[in-house]
Fold:
Amino acid sequence: MAAYVASKWAIVGFTETVSLEMKQQKSKVIVNCVMPFYINTGMFDGVKSRIVPILDPEKASSKIISNIEKGKLRTPMPLPYWFVRLSQALLPNKVYDFVMGDVFGIYDSMEDFKGRK
Structure:
């Protein structure tokens, strides 16, 4: 889990920096950071979520393409993603961990993970 999460944090910083560099160079290159929850592709078979819905691949693809066409920097999916980021910024770690782990069950969502066969 640590390597997976570290790669997600890294890509956010990377895309924001590349986007800034493109703007400074007056480039027309658009950089978009896709930030999805689990997408129902088979890769996450067995994953359970109490609150946040597992995403439909077709709808997720459409949202990604739409945001790229609009020139947006980020494509977080679904909407509750913003609640997670805001909570992480505002709440003390112990409170955040209680809410995400005990209330929403995010930390246990992969307990029955099977993966793609």
